[in-house]
């Protein structure tokens, strides 16, 4: 680099590896329950559901907004756990799922490019401090205003 010349970056990015974060957001309080896994399969998602079952009080229903994981293993697990209700979003509107908003905030505030999966996972775990002072997300527009905007 030379003085007065902006830094150049290439379009490609070399990954140092990946990790999977499953997360559930309690919309009333903003509390997040998360689970990190090295793989991204239905088996890991099922482990996450089992963890949710342990952490969420037994008298509460659990509504999961999902865009996938309707696998045979999950379909078999759900009837045995009737308090779990899956709701699937259509392709595209991830904004309907508030945990996606939390993922975006996590990415903007905590996660940047990492040189290793271990460093990435440490940063994600450090974000657990989120639950020391959680805040629910508040919609700033009504459903009618959102739908009207989408229609236009």
Please give the CATH class: Alpha Beta
The pLDDT mean sits at 82
Side by side, the strands of the main sheet go: 1-2
Taking pLDDT < 50 over at least 5 consecutive residues as the criterion, the unreliable ranges are none
Structural class: alpha+beta
Global geometry: globular
Continuous helix count:
5
Q: What can be said about the biggest beta sheet? A: 2 strands, antiparallel
What does this protein look like?
The structure is a single chain. This protein has one domain (20-151): Ribonuclease H-like superfamily/Ribonuclease H (Nucleotidyltransferase, domain 5, 2-Layer Sandwich), CATH 3.30.420. Helices cover 34% and strands 14% of the residues. The protein has five helices and four strands, in the order E-E-H-E-H-E-H-H-H. With 152 residues, it is an alpha+beta fold. The mean pLDDT is 82. The protein starts with 19 loop residues before the first strand and ends with a helix. Strand 1 and strand 2 form a beta hairpin. The strands form two sheets. It has a two-stranded antiparallel ribbon with strand order 1-2. A two-stranded parallel sheet has the order 3-4. It is globular, with a radius of gyration of 19 Å.
């Amino acid at each position: 680099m030379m003085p007065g010349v902006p830094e150049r970056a290439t379009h490609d990015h070399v990954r140092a590896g990946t990790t999977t974060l499953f997360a559930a957001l309690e919309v009333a309080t903003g509390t997040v329950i998360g689970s990190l896994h090295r793989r991204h399969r239905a088996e890991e998602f099922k482990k996450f559901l089992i963890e949710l079952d342990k952490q969420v009080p037994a008298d509460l229903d659990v509504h999961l907004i999902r865009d996938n994981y309707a696998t045979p293993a999950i379909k078999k697990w759900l009837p045995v756990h009737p308090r779990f209700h899956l709701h699937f979003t259509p392709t595209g509107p991830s904004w309907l799922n508030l945990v996606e908003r939390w993922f975006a905030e996590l990415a903007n505030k905590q996660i940047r490019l990492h040189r290793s999966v271990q460093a990435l996972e440490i940063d994600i775990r450090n974000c657990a401090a989120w639950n020391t002072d959680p805040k629910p997300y508040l919609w700033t527009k009504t459903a009618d205003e959102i739908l009207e905007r989408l229609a236009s």
